[in-house]
Amino acid sequence: MSTALYVDAGIQASKYCNVGTFAALVFDYCITLEAESQWVWHRKWTFVRFIFTVSRYLPFFGIGMTFVGELQMSKHWLIAKFAHG
């Protein structure tokens, strides 16, 4: 098996892990949204609430940036593949 196939398989596995992580994140968000609404949203802002909010919503930003990076890499890979035949 050539090195290119190993690299391609690794990239594909990374993409599957990214999608799986995103699905788990959305699932966790959905099942805890009611409790978050009850215990967090209607409280005054404190340091603890700030840290909770950042830790709760920053992963969505991180996964979004990962998806954008993957799309950019895929676009450049396709252009290079078709440009060289």
From TrEMBL:
Residues 16-61 form the DUF6533 domain. It holds the Pfam family DUF6533. It comes from the Eukaryota. The chain crosses the membrane at residues 47-68. InterPro entries: DUF6533. Keywords: Membrane, Transmembrane, Transmembrane helix. This is DUF6533 domain-containing protein. It comes from Suillus luteus UH-Slu-Lm8-n1.
